[in-house]
Amino acid sequence: xxxxxxxxxxxxxxxxxxxxxxxxxxxxxxxxxxxxxxxxxxxxxxxxxxxxxxxxxxxxxxxxxxxxxxxxxxxxxxxxxxxxxxxxxxxxxxxxxxxxxxxxxxxxxxxxxxxxxxxxxxxxxxxxxxxxxxxxxxxxxxxxxxxxxxxxxxxxxxxxxxxxxxxxxxxxxxxxxxxxxxxxxxxxxxxxxx
Length: 194
Hints:
alpha/beta, about 190 residues
């Protein structure tokens, strides 16, 4: 196994979902964070019924956010209103990709492609793809080795997946049959983040 295993998984994931590109990350929350940073999001609205890491990320990035008024549950995915970014943590279906969007997947426990951890970004924006690929891997240009030979770095994050996770993803991807189903999250409107 080599880094090519990650590239192969990303290629197969893009093909499966109908997106032009897929970028594997170490988790869905970091996939969302990278998209928010790339698109320079300063404010958005989303469901109050989600995982705690979502408002934590907004807090960390100093994004002004509000929760939707509705108590309606979401199935599979929801959008960060006012952006092109989706939390698709509980969805993975053939040809699920929406053109022009950035959909963030989770491969955690109980997810449609259960690897144990990891995530991905589905997108069709080639410029965003090239920049996000570097962002997820410490700002590195992976065609330059050793990395110390690289002189100019964009700000990056250590949000890279492992080769082993990509290998499991490749093995399990063609067996994904689970359709999105309701998962009940707590109402986060009453939490306080300090």
